[in-house]
Amino acid sequence: MAFTIAHEIGHFILHDKEKETFRRLDAINLDRQDIIKEEEANWFAASLLMPYSEIMKWWANTQEIKKLAIVFGVSH
């Protein structure tokens, strides 16, 4: 849930010039521009929820993905 919210915030911040809101029914048939926007929003969400510097601090202590997911409240 947190990732989805962060992802949508990413769209709002990164793609704010596009005021059009729509519901995508067929995510399989995205054009290249939409795929890029989705990747950007995913990157934003991951960076917001799991800042690189914090990941590296925790990674030094435990290199277990499941533990890190719990710490950052994300899915593994």
Structural class by sheet pairing and helices: mainly alpha
* Spatial gap, N to C terminus: 13 Å
The Cα radius of gyration reads 15 Å
Helix-strand sequence: HHHH
* Beta content: under 5%
| DSSP E strands, number | 0
Mean pLDDT comes to: 85
Describe the fold and architecture.
It is a single chain. With 76 residues, this protein is mainly alpha-helical. 64% of the residues lie in helices and 0% in strands. It contains four helices and no strands. Helix 1 (2-14) crosses helix 2.
List keywords for this structure.
76 residues, mainly alpha, 4 helices, 0% strand
Secondary structure elements and pairings:
Layout: H1 2-14, H2 32-49, H3 52-61, H4 65-72
Short description:
By secondary structure, the protein is mostly helical. The chain has four helices and no strands. The two termini are 13 Å apart.
